[in-house]
Each structure stands twice: as C-alpha cells, then as structure tokens.
C-alpha cells in the first residue's frame, strides 16, 4: 500500500520524505491556507509548486470552482504547475463531468469527498485516477468508514477498474492498518499519525535495555 502525507506543511513533507516511505501528497484549500498562515506569506500556487519539487510522486491540489467550466479551467491551470500534479474534483455532477473531460486530456484526477461506495463507482466510470473515501468523517457520525472502503475495494475488483482507492480522513494508526488489510491502494496520513506509526513502547523499552546491557561491557 502506498503512503501519502495529508498536509501542505513543507517542513512535515520534507521530514516524511526523509524517511524514505513517502509516495505522494494530498492537499486541499484549508491545508494550503494553514501553510500560508504558518509562513506568514506566500500564495497557494507557489507552495504547491514547492511541494511538487519535494515529492516526485502524485501531489493532489483541489479546484475551488463549483461549476463544470470553472473546474475544467482551474484543473488545467493546476495541471500546468508540474508533471506530477493530480487535480482534485469533488463528487458532484459538475465534478464528474470535469473528471471525464480532464481525464480525457490525460490529466490525472482525484475525486474527493466520497462517502458511499456508489459514489466511488461513478467516479471510476468517469475516469478518475484516484477516489478518496473519507473514513474519519463517517466515523464521526457513527457510520463505519472502513466498511465503505471494503465495499469500494470489492466493487473495483469485480470490474478491474484502474482507479486507485485512496483512503482519506485518516485519524489514527488503526485506520492505516485497516486500509492495508482491506487492500486499499493508498492511505493519505497526517504527519502526526505517521509519527505514531513509527513508535511502540516495547520497541523503546527494548532499545533502552539493549543499550544498558551493551554499556556493561564497553568502555
């Protein structure tokens, strides 16, 4: 399973990339706005271009327009920033139309804000390169987010869609494990969760004990 980082914070992206585990990045307007606020300067396009230079894998940026023509126009502009750009379109009627148009122009599209399997099916049929089911937001309303992922993986397997299942709105390491067990293609993870994946108390205790024992016999 590929691991993406869900942030526009370039310091976090560089730190995650240094681990050698990072396959891509997902951003959205809120994350880009947060990065501008953190820096106290900058424009979304500049930050996104910087991210594309840091990470050679897919980097998603979202359109802001709500209408078909606006989405297509913005999608083309975003795709022109770098060769590894993926345009994010929401799961709406206009979004599906834009996905079809952009995908036919060989522009990769990540259809976002998916909350039920049939939405993912529609996105795949429209030519999406990725679909992003939001598991955490479903969990927040007491709906099983991972059950949705299981259904999407099953449906896509039935019809051999090339569209990749990108599990989004990941809140904890259990979400990552479940995504991997279910056969999702990608999980996009906040930097805080990536750090959680690295640590286990027994690993820490083991290192401390080995170090202590080694010191007994070294100068």
First and last CA, distance: 44 Å
Largest pleated sheet: 8 strands, parallel, barrel
Number of helices: 11
Let me know the CATH homologous superfamily: Aldolase class I
CATH class: Alpha Beta
Estimated radius of gyration? 19 Å
Can you tell me the overall shape?
globular
Strand content: 15-25%
The figure for the number of domains is 1
Which fold does the CATH topology refer to?
TIM Barrel
Q: Architecture in CATH?
A: Alpha-Beta Barrel
Strands of the widest sheet, in order across it, are: 1-2-3-4-5-6-7-8
| Low-confidence parts | none
Note the run of SSEs as H and E. Answer: EHEHHEHEHEHEHHEHEHH
What does the average pLDDT come to? Answer: 95
Q: Level of helix content? A: 40-55%
> Structural class from helices and strands?
alpha/beta
- The counted number of beta strands is 8
